[in-house]
Every structure is written in structure tokens, then in C-alpha cells.
Amino acid sequence: MTANRNGLPGSDGEHALQRRHGTAERAARFYDDQTLSHVNAGMREFVARQEMFFLATADRNGACDNSFRAGPPGFLRVLDERTLAYPEYRGNGVLASLGNIEENPHVAILLIDFLRDRVGLHINGSARVVEDGAMRTAHPGLPVDGIPGRRPRLWVEIAVEEAYIHCAKHIPHLRRAAPDEGPDGRAWGTDDARRKGGDYFGVRAGRR
């Protein structure tokens, strides 16, 4: 949800659909009551205790990608009410989300608390990729990950443009699993290919 050419929250297409389906008044109340251009104190507290989020990006042509990020509580850092940052670790080497950000800085983050409050938070903004050394020079208080050998290569810094609630309707209430619970004793933070899922969907096997 970004501002349209008339300065209203949302896109031109969004507003056209609202008029067509008679929801413009209800949408206007939501914009007025729930949409901010920054993260307020309640949002900052919510972000600080989350351990995962979903990240939407798109390349210069609008081809979209959605990805998942996870870490210890607060790994998505609130640097100030208009700036967030999170670390990028060694992955599969594809760098799809970061590649999209290099072409198109617009990003959308969705945090959902499945465990306690059953509510979500949308944060949309403009992102840039920053080297770890440069990020730590600019923000000396950034934590060092406690897992041996696990150090960020890069950071994504996000200038907040919009923040609003994702209501609790239909969000399931889940329970926390033990760290080693799951198939093959998979654990958070592992770089072991088999424990991360291996060829779970049979893609590699199907090409032989």
C-alpha cells in the first residue's frame, strides 16, 4: 500500500476497486485509524520480539518474489521510528531478494505473531543493501550473533513509508516447537543441507 498520485494511501487500482464495490468509506476509516508513515511505540515493541517475517520484493519489471526470514527476537532491528534493518546470512547463493532490491528498492514486510497475540503488522518501504562493516560503523550497537561462525555478510536497511495492522481474523494460534523437534531432528540455524530439508520436493531426483 503506497500513496497514489492524489496523496491517498494505496494505489489507483485499489481506489478504483473500492469505488466499484462500495468500500471506499470503510477503507477511508481504515487508512485514518490504522495507517502510519512510521512505526509507533506499540509497533516497535511488537517488532522487537518477533522471530520471523515474510519479505516481498520485485525486480525492475515487476516480477515478484516472496521470501522468509527468521532469527532470534529482535533480529529485525528498529533503528528509529522510520528505519529498520535486518542481517543477511550465508544462504543458497541465489540472492533473489537482494537482487530484486538492487533493481527495485520497494519492499513489503509482513510480521505475524502466531504464538501470543495472533495479530500481524505490515511494513512497506524503500530498501538498500549495506555491507556488514559499513552497517556496524554507522550503528556500533548492533549485536553479534551468538551462534559460532554465523555472521552477517550484508544488511538490508529499510526506510519505512507505511505501517499498518494485519487483523487477527483467520490467523491460527500455534505452539512453539522444541529446537530439535521435526523431521530428522532439524534445528534452527543449521547449514547442514540434509537437515535444512535436502531435496524435499524431489527436484534434483527428478532431473536424473
Give an overview of the whole structure.
The structure is a single chain. The chain is α+β, with helices and mostly antiparallel strands and 208 residues long. It has six helices and seven strands; from the N terminus they run H-H-H-E-E-E-E-H-E-E-H-E-H. A seven-stranded antiparallel β-sheet has the order 2-1-5-6-7-4-3.
Task: List the main descriptive attributes of the protein structure presented here.
about 210 residues; alpha+beta; globular; 6 helices
The amount of helix comes to 10-25%
Rounded mean pLDDT is 89
Q: What composes the largest sheet? A: 7 strands, antiparallel
Structural class: alpha+beta
The H/E string reads HHHEEEEHEEHEH
Name the poorly predicted regions.
Answer: none
User: What is the strand content?
Assistant: 25-35%
Distance between the ends: 44 Å
Strand order of the largest sheet: 2-1-5-6-7-4-3
**Radius of gyration over all CA atoms, rounded:** 19 Å
The rough form would be described as globular
How many strands?
7
What's the tally of helices?
Answer: 6
